[in-house]
Structure formats: C-alpha cells, structure tokens
Amino acid sequence: MNKTVWRFLLAGALALGAAAAPAAEDKKVLRYAFPIAETGFDPARIVDLYSRIVTGHIFESLYTYDHLARPAKYRALIADGMPEVSADFRTWTVRLKRGIYFADDPAFNGKKREVTAADFVYAYKRPVDPANKSPIVAGVLDYKMVGLAALRDKAIKERKPFDYDTEIEGVRALDRYTIQFKLEEPRPRFMENLAANDLFGAQAREVVEKYGDAIPAHPVGSGPFKLTQWRRSSLIVLERNPDYREVLYDAEPAADDAEGQAILKRFKGRKLPMIDRVEVSIIEETQPRWLAFLNQQLDFIAVPAEFVNTAMPNGQVAPNLARQGVQGFRTLNADSAFLYFNMNDPVVGGYTAEKVALRRAVGLGIDMERVIAIIYRGQALPAQSIVVPHTSGYDPAFKSENGDFDPARANALLDLYGYVDKDGDGWRDQPDGSPLVLEFATQPSQQDRQRDELMRKDMQRLRLKVDFKTAKWPENLKAARAGKLQIWSLGSSAAGADGQGSLARLYGPQGGSQNLAFFKNKDFDEIYARMQNMPDGPEREALFHQAKLIATAYMPYKNWVHRIANDLAQPWLLGYRRALFWQEWWHMVDIDNTKRPAVK
According to CATH, what is the number of the domain 335-563? Predict the structure, then answer.
C-alpha cells in the first residue's frame, strides 16, 4: 500500500485530532493509541486490558503500587496506613483517609461527595450482582468473603434484585472510615486484591443508580482523571480531575536503580497529576499507529513487533530517532500470549485420550521459533507454562512439551489415535470418520493475518484443515466467555506479583471468566485451592510445579510466548517507566511543551 493511502488511513484513525476540542497552548496533553478497542468503563463489567487501563486512572483502590520500586512494593492510597491483618490471614481491617472526594457529577446534586467505607463495600458487592453479568464474578467469589456467595445465591434463587443493603460479615463498613473483610479461608495475598484500582476502586451507589445500563459510559471515581469524551472504539479523552486532592510524587526505587533514582530526583514533591489531559485513539492497524508516532502525532508508542528492528535495533534507539531525542525502553513483560481450546467443544474439547492427543498434536505442530521471528520480530521468549515472568511460580529453568516444536511426533500422535484421512481428500478426519475442521477465531488486523497464515502452514504440515472466523476483538471476547469459540489466541498480563493469577485460567470455577478454556480437573482445582491458603515458600512453589505439569498433560492452552515490550517516547514525555502489574501511570509523567513542535 502506498504512502498516500496510509496517510489517508492515519487521518481517519486519528479522529481525535479533529474531533476533540483543541487544548489551550499551556495545557499538557498526552496523546497515544490503543491497538485494541475498549469495551466500557464499569469496573464490575470489564476484564479486558484496555478498558482497565482507563478505569485505573479514574477509580482509586485502598492501596496501590510504588511506581518506581522493583520488585513491586505496596503503598497506601485511600487507606490510612497498612491493613491490620489477623494471624490466620482471615480478617483484614483497613482505615480510610478522610477528606477524599469523588469527582463532581450530576448524581451528587451539586454537593461534594466524600469517599467512605460504604463505597468500597458497594464496589466489592457489584461484581456478584447477577444483573451485572460480571466477567470477574468467579474471581471475587474465590476470595471467600463470608456471606457474599450466599447473598448472590439468594438473588438468583428468589429471582429478586440483589440486596445491597443487607450487611454481611465478609465485607462491611465498621464505621464511616473503616472497612473490614472477613474471609472463610486464609488469604495471605489478599493485599493484591486491595490494590486493584481498575477493578475495586470506590464507587458511589447513587452514580450507578442514576445511569443504570449506561453506567459503562459514566465512570465516576476519586482518581486523578475523569472521562470527558468517549466515542466507542474510536476516541477516549480524560482530563485532570479538578476535585482531586493534593497528592505529591513520591516513590522508593532501589538504591542501585539509577533510572528510578533519576526519575525520583526530578519529580519528588510535584503535585499529581502532572498533565492536564489524555487523548487516546484506537488504531488497530500497526502501520498507521507507527506512522502517527513518527509524525509526532503520538507521544508514546508500544512499538509494533514488525517495526522493532527499525525502531530499536539490538535493543537501542535507532540513530535517526535518537537524534530527535526519542527515548527507548525495553522490558520483559509480566505477560503471556497463548492459544486456548474450548474444552466443551465436541471437536477439540474433552478429556479422552484421542482429544488430548489432538490438542497436543496441534501444540507440537506450531513452529514457535518462526512465530517469534516473524510475528514478534524476535521480541519474545518461548513460554513453557502459563505462569508469567516477575511473578511467583515462574521458573525460567522449567521445561515442558509446551515449548516443543516436533511435527513428526505430532503426526505420530494423530495417526496413533485414529485421526487419519478416511475419505481420501488429503485431510485428516476424526476417528469416527466425520470431517475434522479446526476453527480459529481471529481479528482483522495485519498482525493477526500474518499469524493466521503461519498457523495455516503449520497445520497443513499435519494435514489438518483449518477455518478462520474473523471478528473484532471485543466480539470475540464476548463469544469466548459464552463458550462459543473453538480456538482463539489472545494475551494476558499479570495483575499482581502472585503467579496464581495466571493459574486461574485453568481453575474450574472460573470457567467463562479467566478460564476461557472451561478446563475442569479435580486434581488441579484441589491444588489451586490449597495454594490460596498457603504462605509463600518452597511448599507452595512445589504446587506451582504440579499445576504446570497437569496443564501440560491435558493441553487446554498452548502457551506461545512471554513478550518483550519496546516502548518509545517523544522527547517531551518525561518520567515514563513501564509498570509491571498495575495499569495506571498517566498521572506519573509530565509533558514539556517547550520541546513539543508546533502543530503542523
């Protein structure tokens, strides 16, 4: 495609440039793009990364992460100090700071609305309300807050609205500024839940009740930004929350962390947020997104894989970009990309030997080194399990069949279990003689098309017929949760330092939520439950190992890679550092307008 056509596409993709009201010259505006569309901004109804990036800047949880500390460290946010925790990790009591207010909204009738403990109780109850059909309900119930599951069951059984007014022991306001969680089982790592801005920030009940089904478009929190404009799948604009309290930049980077120490020295004591406005466009195609950065229409970009060697050859900013002052950042992500098989699907699902053999054969037939070279341009590590780097349970020395490419063994497995060509058309059939077609869900982006072509060639090597079903990512996610897709590839990022969050993708009760494969295995579920209650240590690490072996044996997921992020920032974007687990960072950066070129 020629440059003129690409510039036309770019102009359309960057609709915010024309549609958003031009900011005053002294306004500090951060402009960048999401590669995938958001789904909405109601924390109880989202699970996708890009929606959670936005909500993480609007809502505030009790705790957060120190932005510069490596390894990760918790900091009080709305909480007034660290929690009081019982010796058995079943009771967690948190006191709130006073004088923290929600952003102004018509739901408050012109009055300032203070954040109270009741707002957190409400936020934790909302995902289990059946009316919300929350994708995170299984995860919330898994915390075992006393009485919460019973409250949900009552609403379902009696077919009545969820009772938000009934006080339960599991999550309650002891007074206006004290919230207490009582858990049925020990949860040594419950702190991760208390630090989830994007999912469990304080929510005002009157706001949710005012907007009803339109609440995904009306997020109101106490955070540094507020949503001021939203065109679905096109434009998201956030502006500084004028009601935000005084919060000053502070952090605790390690003494030998030169980069972190330099950022702290530059910004310590500055009032947050340091910028006034964030404009996010949705540009799914990589070429227009890359051109937008080169044309200085974006201030930041996670470099698309196909441009990594141009942008950061050998991990260094390319000379032509370095001369312009462009900054480069390279990080091994706490994430994974994977392919899952729907375990309820009649073709690829099931637990019998021949079904396991089919999934294992597909996994063995994928040339991951070629995928890494072509799709990720070498910016990824082969994954041996679903547990991701920077989290507990991740062992760089762990090796499994998941990381193997062995088409000879794959073909032998298929032959052994009866997947042979019975009708003479050149393609393998199912053991009962019926046609065998693998249906891969996919998206219409250039990278997806490239990956699909590699997958088609890999499966041809095994004489397996494939059919690609194309839809937008949010549509595929909706279908995946409903169990309507056979095979789909996507990615996931860790939400905290505990690797058990990755294992939730195989935990039976999370089917349709984190567990899109709908995998059910009694031994795995027992291991998962035991791990929840155990403190960190060698015994728990041994259970991680067992869980990974079960996942490898049944192959509900083919884990692809752990990705290496290559980020570029324009010279006027100051203080950027990629977060490990948390989503919020916009308030921690500054824009130097004296370095930004005049709008062309």
Answer: 3.10.105.10
